[in-house]
């Protein structure tokens, strides 16, 4: 639907100009970015990544993996120790070039929204429009406020707005100067979980409409899957994998990536001629030809539980009601630790102790065993 919409020219476009607030999307490239805050530790280690024009790229990774630092380098408020930043193939930061933040056409939305408490919503949004005449700045600011649906609050002060409304003001302020690229650092982390879904969907719609290229930092895999056209996963300052959510979920590059997207049961095993045996059954491991030590990861959702006629016998240790799902802890012969499963509510009759399990093959992932399974 979004694609169809983006093909249909809006009236202003048909008249030869862009509708209010629409940006010319740009390509933003990180070329072999290294960064350190101290001589001993490196925050970013050779990150090369390109956000394509108009795409929403999510930077995902655990706390301390370097996401915010990468965003700050793109914005020009932090400087890399090596590497270059390119906007539409033009170097904006590198060994001999440094375009200051205000000249980059890059907007930034902070985690805490960073609104000025003593300024009205209109003045907050107008703040970054200093290049325009006062009348034009007011018009553009009002247009940006209208696009986030807050016209009725243009003269209010931030403290009377809800968290979600404040987030929309922050978005309007960042979009008002029509940046080619918008950087959002954990933009929903201050919102409660119920509000988060709505605000996230609204933000995505506004980003699509503005057509700016957007890079969104998050540590939440589900959020990255909901928002990103592609996801770039960072670990310890390195890019581990980049691609659409389906690719990272279905073909994770390693156990770290797999564990970021799903909860897993892990088994150490030995691959023999393309097969591995685990307490939950024997599974194909076609990428291992000879004999190799491997880690077998089985998603919790990939284990089905039945009263009878399964493949592996198990005893229920605990059952926890989770609404639509039930979390099971199971004792399985040959498994050192309890096996965890997440099944649909109501599949198993209450009080059952001995059950049968069947594992969906697409939920079994086999990785070369690492010295340390981080
Ligand atoms: N100003 C600073 N001085 C020294 N070290 C810093 C500074 N800012 C960040 N760091 C360190 O750099 C590393 C990367 O931090 P960064 O904030 O980029 O990670 P992040 O992935 O965004 O984490 P989070 O999700 O917790 O915000 C961390 O180890 C952090 O402690």
Automatic annotation (TrEMBL):
Protein's name in the database: ABC transporter ATP-binding protein
Domain ABC transporter, first and last residues per copy: 28-261
UniProt xrefs under Pfam families: ABC_tran
Cellular component aspect of the GO annotation: membrane
Gene3D superfamilies: P-loop containing nucleotide triphosphate hydrolases
SMART domains with a match to the protein in the record: AAA (SM00382)
Organism per entry: Nitratireductor mangrovi
GO MF, one annotated term: ABC-type ferric iron transporter activity
